[in-house]
Specification:
single chain, nine-stranded mixed β-sheet, 29% helix, globular
Length: 250
């Protein structure tokens, strides 16, 4: 997928990271090859080189300390947020960030998110929508995995559905939804003023709130397979193997 790498407005990149997690308590601090997950994700985002301000938004002093040790800026946010988008909106609502009209939310467990996914999500905003995201090819063995969120996309590049279940009734078939959102300032602030939907709560998918309230979501589709975010202890072990240094024999 080829996308424009130059944007009229430089975005603010926020990586939301809460300490509490149902599947992995303290997930942002999970060690992968002796480094906290949140530090690895933040470094990867910085390596994108998007000429943007990058910061971690968190509710926990331990996460603040971990990213500070790596030289990464953090902002303390409320522990009452129900989603990463709500945490990002708190940051953007502060006067010190009032100049940013484009915001990129990269979820704190997206260790393998490629640069083109972030750039692609932002590019959706240039096309006129107020919310953009990204997707990749879905492996056959992941169709039944509820930890892999599926998204169907129409011919105009807009989301047709989001679900943890694979339906197989769309053409083209569903893709793997990636943990990245781009918003206009107005789109982000509208999102968080909407009431939660029943489906959002039942499926645990925050994107269903704007989607079911009629807000179009543009989807940048990558024609490749991308490893999903770190969501379970099995994912942590898999990431350990993927990132393990390659040993060569003498």
């Amino acid at each position: 997928m080829k996308v424009l790498l130059i944007f009229a407005v430089h975005p603010l990149i926020v990586i939301p990271a809460r300490f509490g997690s149902t599947r992995i308590p303290g997930k942002p601090l999970s060690k992968i090859n002796d480094a906290p997950l949140i530090t690895l994700v933040s470094r990867r985002v910085l390596e994108y080189g998007l000429d943007s301000d990058v910061l971690v938004a968190t509710d926990d002093s331990r996460i603040e300390a971990a990213v500070a040790q790596a030289g990464i800026r953090s902002v303390r946010t409320s522990a009452k947020h129900n989603s990463g988008t709500e945490r990002v909106a708190e940051v953007v609502s502060r006067p010190e960030f009032s100049q940013f009209e484009r915001i990129l939310n990269i979820q704190g467990d997206q260790l393998f998110l490629p640069k083109q996914a972030a750039v692609g999500a932002l590019a959706q905003l240039e096309g006129g929508v107020s919310v953009g995201t990204a997707a990749a090819l879905l492996l056959k063995q992941h169709e039944s995995d509820r930890n892999r969120v599926k998204v169907a996309v129409d011919d105009a590049g807009l989301a047709r559905s989001f679900s943890r279940e694979y339906s197989g009734r769309y053409d083209p078939p569903e893709f793997l939804h990636l943990g990245v959102y781009a918003y206009t300032r107005a789109g982000l602030l509208e999102w968080v003023t909407l009431p939660p939907t029943r489906a959002e709560v039942e499926e645990g998918l925050e994107q269903l709130r704007p989607f079911l309230n009629g807000i179009p979501i543009g989807v940048a589709v990558l024609d490749e397979f991308v490893e999903a975010g770190i969501d379970t202890p099995t994912d942590v072990a898999s990431a350990q193997q993927s990132l393990a240094p390659t040993r060569t024999s003498a």
